[in-house]
């Protein structure tokens, strides 16, 4: 599994549109059915109904893009291989699920489980107000955060973890004294559960931090 989580900065950069935003997705509706991108296939966005084109090149993983670089969900984080690898840990029918609020607001959850938990995979930084909006919108939400996005995140986390207190010997949960480093500071205030994924060379370690 370790290799699947290796990040590639070239891939990330080439996937950004001129405005820095793209909304690449794994699924689009083809004749009303959710389908993955395949050469020469065209579909529609499950959220905004806009035409989508299948992008099946050799560099990036195959995906769907809105025709004309439209961006219909401001919360959508461009799908990187990191996102795709995480989503693929779950059944297809749980991935990229449109979630409706009573007031008509719609967003696409990365994963929504059979019993209603939403899992969001967060690779880039997120403003605290947006984080809170998403937590309010989804209610039962679990964040999975790329814990090694910034160079110093891993070291900060390890130090905080080392100083942490374990309340239950059999559990991998620890209470850490203060939010050392940007990563923990960003996520310490979250009301939802946040898991930080720390990829160390070939092995993947997941630590529940909150
Ligand atoms: Zn759309």
Account of the protein in words:
The chain has 210 residues and is α+β, with helices and mostly antiparallel strands. It folds into 2 domains: 11-74, no CATH class; 80-209, no CATH class. It is 20% helix and 28% strand. The protein has 5 helices and 11 strands; from the N terminus they run αβββββαβββαβααββ. It has helices at 9-14, 81-87, 128-138, 153-163, 181-188, and strands spanning 27-30, 33-36, 42-44, 51-55, 63-66, 95-100, 106-112, 118-122, 141-146, 193-200, 203-208. The protein has a 6-stranded mixed beta sheet. Strands 3-4-5 form a 3-stranded antiparallel beta sheet, with no helix packed on it. The radius of gyration is 18 Å and the shape is elongated. The two termini are 24 Å apart. Residues 1-20 and 200-210 have low confidence and may be disordered.
């Amino acid at each position: 599994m370790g290799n699947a989580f290796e990040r590639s900065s070239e891939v990330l950069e080439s996937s950004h549109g001129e405005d820095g935003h793209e909304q690449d997705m794994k699924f689009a509706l083809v004749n009303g059915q959710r389908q993955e991108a395949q050469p020469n296939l065209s579909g529609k966005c499950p959220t905004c109904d806009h035409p989508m084109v299948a992008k099946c090149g050799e560099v990036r993983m195959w995906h769907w893009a809105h025709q004309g670089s439209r961006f219909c969900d401001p919360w959508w984080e461009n799908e990187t291989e990191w996102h795709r690898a995480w989503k693929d840990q779950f059944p297809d029918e749980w991935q990229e699920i449109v979630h409706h609020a009573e007031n008509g607001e719609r967003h696409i959850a990365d994963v929504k489980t059979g019993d209603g938990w939403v899992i969001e995979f967060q690779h880039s930084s997120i403003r605290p107000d947006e984080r809170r909006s998403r937590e309010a919108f989804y209610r039962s939400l679990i964040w999975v955060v790329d814990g090694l996005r910034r160079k110093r995140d891993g070291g900060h986390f390890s130090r905080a973890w080392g100083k942490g207190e374990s309340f239950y010997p059999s559990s991998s949960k620890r209470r850490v004294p203060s939010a050392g480093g940007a990563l923990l500071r960003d996520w310490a205030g979250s009301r939802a559960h946040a898991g930080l994924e720390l990829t160390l060379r070939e092995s993947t370690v997941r630590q529940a931090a909150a």
